[in-house]
Write a structure and sequence with these properties.
422 residues, mainly alpha, 78% helix, membrane, transmembrane
């Protein structure tokens, strides 16, 4: 092993340790790791720029800007109240409705944004009903990760995978999206057994929910109409981006620019609402992994994985699926996916058809986030909202439900991948 390889590995491990231990802010750790690679002459500034996946960054910035404008219309509050009333104020139907809404929005927006929008409304409605919101919060955490797995833009790992593998929105719908249908059905059945009979509410509280006026949630009818039209256009463009010869980042950024022009919102407020620490975290992470790739460590790992599985693509697929799921249950899935992407691309350079490996990585990393309370950003955000409202969710309480549900979902995906790629 060369000195450069040792230095690159040491910087990578130190960066990951800082991220995992929370001794440093994730963004500070990632950017510091990138700077160390430059200071040690592992990478030049130009090589750092090449290591950053601009497509991923573009999609994230574009969608964050777009959602920041759209949410000001009040559309998400409208949907939540309307859903509760359609469920007639009954606790189990409300849970199912909010699970489905959370999953769908997580696929169309992203799961962190979705829980920030749906979480407070869930607390408001459960408060009116007089029921414990914790079961609703737990099921929405899982629904956000399940729904985010289904599409190209639903979860950051999918954005990264789609960009690296040149996979389209439709590709995700036909693969991860198809698998997620079965995962969601299984989840709803399990939730019915776990929570269905314990959710009770008084009739007077149901009447209070039915009195809510969803129309009052709309802050700007003009912005609402614009938002619906633009979101539909964006969805269609994502679906047909191959025919339009447009990259996903271009679509997201163009839609954001258009809404900044016509939406009537303060551009500075909207731009400041973008999660810039997250964007910089991605930039630093891409550079740190780029250092490993530059010195040949990724190639060594890829060859090692192939030697373990004997080059059997089915065994490699299942190994990536389950390792991704278990690791992503306890660690942030973004650094893990950032490391595995170049490894899979190296395997591809050996003439191996790696298509099954991309889907295994996506399903494992995204669904693995349901394993523990710290498995994904959406988990931390939504449990934090619940804690701040006076309803803390402990690691153990979530683990008893989340980890078995994660194992079940990954087992379903194993069967799906075996059938799909046998």
């Amino acid at each position: 092993m060369s000195l450069q390889q040792i230095i690159a590995i040491a910087i990578f491990l130190i960066t990951m340790a800082a991220i995992i231990s929370d001794k440093l802010h994730n963004t500070v750790a990632a950017i510091s790791g990138a700077i160390l690679l430059i200071l040690t002459h592992i990478l030049t500034i130009d090589e750092c720029v090449e290591a950053v996946d601009i497509e991923t960054i573009g999609i994230l910035v574009g969608m964050m800007l777009l959602v920041a404008i759209v949410k000001n219309s009040g559309i998400f509050e409208y949907i939540a109240i309307k859903a509760a009333k359609l469920a007639k104020g009954r606790p189990w139907p409300i849970m199912v409705t909010f699970i489905i809404i959370t999953a769908v929005l997580s696929g169309l927006l992203d799961n962190v944004t979705t829980v920030l929008l749906v979480g407070p409304m869930t607390l408001a409605i459960t408060n009116i009903l007089g029921v414990n919101p914790v079961p609703y919060i737990i099921t929405q955490i899982m629904a956000s990760n399940i729904g985010g797995t289904a599409t190209l833009i639903g979860d950051p790992p999918n954005i990264m995978i789609g960009s690296a593998a040149k996979l389209s929105f439709v590709d995700f719908i036909l693969n991860t999206g198809f698998a997620i249908v079965f995962v969601m059905i299984a989840a709803l059945i399990c939730f019915r057994f776990i929570y269905g009979n314990s959710l009770t509410v008084e009739d007077k509280n149901i009447k209070e929910v039915m009195k809510l006026d969803e129309s009052k949630a709309i802050k700007s009818k003009k912005l609402l109409i614009q938002s619906v039209i633009i979101l539909l256009i964006v969805a269609l463009c994502f679906i047909f981006h191959d025919q339009l010869q447009m990259q996903s980042a271009t679509i997201a950024l163009a839609a954001a620019c258009l809404m900044l022009i016509i939406g009537g919102q303060d551009p500075e407020d909207i731009i400041l609402s973008v999660e810039w620490p997250t964007i910089l975290f991605f930039v630093g992470l891409f550079i740190v992994v780029g250092g490993l790739e530059k010195v040949g460590v990724i190639t060594v790992l890829a060859n090692g994985l192939l030697s373990v599985t004997g080059g059997n693509i089915t065994m490699t697929m299942l190994l990536i699926l389950w390792i991704s799921a278990i690791v992503s249950s306890f660690l942030d899935n973004i650094p893990f996916v950032a490391t595995l992407i170049p490894m899979i691309m190296t395997i591809q350079s050996h003439g191996v058809n790696v298509t099954p490996l991309w889907w295994a990585l996506s399903l494992g990393a995204c669904l693995g986030g349901n394993g523990t309370l710290v498995g994904a950003s959406a988990n931390v955000v939504l449990s934090g909202i619940s804690k701040n409202a006076g309803y803390p969710i402990t690691f153990g309480k979530y683990f008893k439900i989340g980890f078995p549900m994660m194992i079940l979902s990954v087992f379903i995906c194993s069967v799906f991948l075996l059938i799909r790629f046998s």
